[in-house]
């Protein structure tokens, strides 16, 4: 699988002249990383950071361009135009649509997977063979670079220990950056095949990979399919909305299924499971995609588009496209799936329909709908938010926080108010609204006491032999020395167990919290602190527990106490 000779001769003229621009951007990326690490700014700090990102992304795009041009005979002008297009794409992504940069990075390195085959007729075998070879190269290069880095670190530590040489400590970071940005990608480049003709006929999977796909992943996918369909039937029967994280579960499931499907034709001896997925899984994908779209629609209609929801929309479009394509072509096409995802990533990163544009406009429209209801006589300098419900405050806090995280979002807020806010706190102050978050809403709805602390109280310890500051978390056993005896404490299943020799006593904290709820106590402070004092006796020992704080974990109607801080007094 590996061409060892090409790795040992990796830094050669032949390799450099095969991918010259790739090496130039690698070197530029290295120097900019060193400057950033040492806080050396030859240009404005933000601009220098963007140049580093541009160089990093252009490594991927230029490599993909070279691989494409190796299969296509073009004159110099046309070749130069390809590289100029790459530069334009990166400029738009880094300097214009900077909030969608992650999509552009994925697009740049995804383009390497299919650029070799963009211009030629190919089979799924050839693309899989090429990408498996590149993947193996990446893994080999990673471990080689990792071992090299560890080896250098050990040598430097040895020199420092034996000879007190600290000079190399000054450049140790630079050495690690050099390995990461120069050595690692060079080793990868050295094993990218020039000749793809041998890859066209068939793909020979290793037995371990075939075993993983055939006997592990395929049955798991079918089991997961049954679980999802059972859930779909359940929500149809009881007519409830899909759970919030269902969309991500479906996306991970479908992505893994597509990956497995890409390898199925390469398995020599098919099983019942692999045959079933290969023939019928296209039909089984339809229902999950429908429910994925329903889940996305519900979340977007309630809370607008965010970067994460935009990602779900992109994946939904991609899954739908693959289904339609397979129905038309009557087979799964790896190249089409990679190219379509690449184009969607470009749309998400460098067009007016980018993730940042769509999500920021969506959230800003939500903001205007909420805030304009509370303008005083249509005056954007005065807002009456005194009667704003906690739920609305949570919603508004969430929107303002989201918008303030990006330069463009803050610009929207400044243009709306005709101000020059720098932070979200200035916005909250201007509209005279206190921030509120989902946990505030949860606390308001809860019938139980929420977190409290009584650390500023002075407790009466008269007549007690021992006074201990007691802190215990779940299942964490502690031991305290009491003259000739030992006190052992452990909090388990919301019950605080105390043991002195053979004398044992327990405080059921869960029951204590429930009793507070029965008394309609939702807040504990200095006015009702006596509700937190409990005295228990066992034989000749008296225990007085003064609860100072509790961590209460509430799920639906069930509660659990995970932590207690208290002052324990003992009389013997």
Automatic annotation (TrEMBL):
TM regions (residue ranges): 15-35, 47-68, 80-95, 101-117, 138-163, 175-192, 212-234, 246-264, 280-300, 306-325, 332-353
Xref: InterPro entries: DUF4153 (IPR025291)
Any Pfam family: DUF4153
Protein name, UniProt field: DUF4153 domain-containing membrane protein
Keywords carried by this UniProt record: Membrane, Transmembrane, Transmembrane helix
């Amino acid at each position: 699988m590996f061409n060892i000779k090409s790795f040992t001769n990796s830094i050669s003229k032949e390799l450099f002249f095969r991918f010259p621009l790739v090496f130039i951007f690698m070197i530029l990326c290295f120097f900019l990383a060193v400057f950033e690490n040492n806080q050396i700014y030859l240009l404005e700090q933000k601009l220098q950071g963007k140049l580093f990102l541009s160089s990093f992304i252009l490594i991927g795009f230029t490599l993909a361009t070279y691989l494409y041009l190796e299969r296509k005979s073009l004159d110099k002008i046309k070749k130069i135009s390809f590289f100029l297009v790459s530069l334009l794409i990166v400029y738009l992504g880094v300097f214009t649509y900077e909030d969608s940069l992650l999509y552009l990075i994925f697009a740049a390195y995804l383009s390497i997977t299919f650029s070799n085959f963009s211009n030629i007729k190919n089979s799924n075998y050839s693309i899989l063979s090429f990408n498996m070879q590149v993947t193996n190269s990446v893994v080999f290069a990673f471990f080689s670079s990792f071992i090299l880095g560890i080896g250098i670190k050990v040598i430097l530590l040895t020199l420092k220990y034996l000879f007190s040489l600290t000079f190399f400590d000054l450049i140790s970071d630079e050495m690690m950056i050099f390995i990461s940005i120069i050595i690692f990608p060079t080793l990868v480049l050295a094993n990218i095949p020039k000749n793809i003709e041998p890859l066209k006929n068939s793909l020979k999977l290793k037995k371990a990979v075939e075993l993983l796909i055939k006997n592990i992943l395929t049955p798991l996918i079918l089991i997961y399919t049954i679980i999802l369909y059972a859930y779909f039937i359940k929500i149809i029967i009881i007519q409830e909305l899909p759970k919030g994280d269902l969309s991500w579960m479906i996306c991970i499931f479908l992505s893994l299924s597509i990956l497995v499907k890409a390898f199925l034709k390469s398995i020599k001896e098919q099983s019942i499971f692999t045959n079933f997925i290969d023939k019928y899984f296209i039909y089984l994908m339809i229902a999950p995609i429908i429910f994925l779209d329903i889940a996305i629609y519900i979340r977007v209609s309630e809370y607008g588009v965010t970067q994460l929801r935009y990602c779900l929309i992109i994946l939904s479009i991609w899954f739908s496209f693959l289904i339609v394509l397979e129905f038309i072509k009557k087979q799964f096409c790896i190249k089409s799936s990679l190219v379509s995802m690449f184009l969607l990533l470009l749309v998400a990163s460098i067009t007016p329909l980018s993730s940042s544009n769509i999500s920021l406009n969506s959230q800003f429209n939500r903001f205007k709908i909420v805030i304009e209801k509370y303008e005083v006589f249509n005056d954007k300098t005065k807002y009456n938010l005194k009667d704003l419900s906690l739920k609305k405050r949570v919603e508004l806090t969430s929107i303002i926080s989201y918008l303030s995280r990006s330069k463009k979002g803050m610009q929207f807020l400044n243009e709306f108010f005709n101000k020059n806010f720098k932070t979200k706190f200035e916005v909250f102050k201007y509209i005279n609204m206190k921030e509120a978050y989902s946990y505030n809403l949860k606390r308001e709805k809860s019938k139980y006491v929420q977190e409290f602390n009584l650390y500023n109280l002075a407790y009466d310890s008269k007549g007690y032999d021992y006074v201990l500051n007691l802190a215990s978390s779940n299942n964490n056993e502690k031991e305290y020395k009491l003259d000739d005896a030992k006190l052992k404490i452990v909090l388990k299943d919301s019950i605080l167990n105390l043991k002195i020799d053979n004398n044992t006593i327990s405080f059921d904290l869960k029951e204590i919290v429930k009793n507070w709820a029965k008394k309609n106590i939702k807040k504990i402070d200095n006015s009702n602190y006596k509700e937190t004092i409990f005295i228990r006796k066992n034989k000749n020992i008296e225990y007085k527990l003064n609860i100072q704080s509790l961590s209460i974990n509430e799920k639906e109607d069930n509660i659990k106490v995970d932590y207690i801080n208290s002052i324990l007094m003992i009389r013997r």
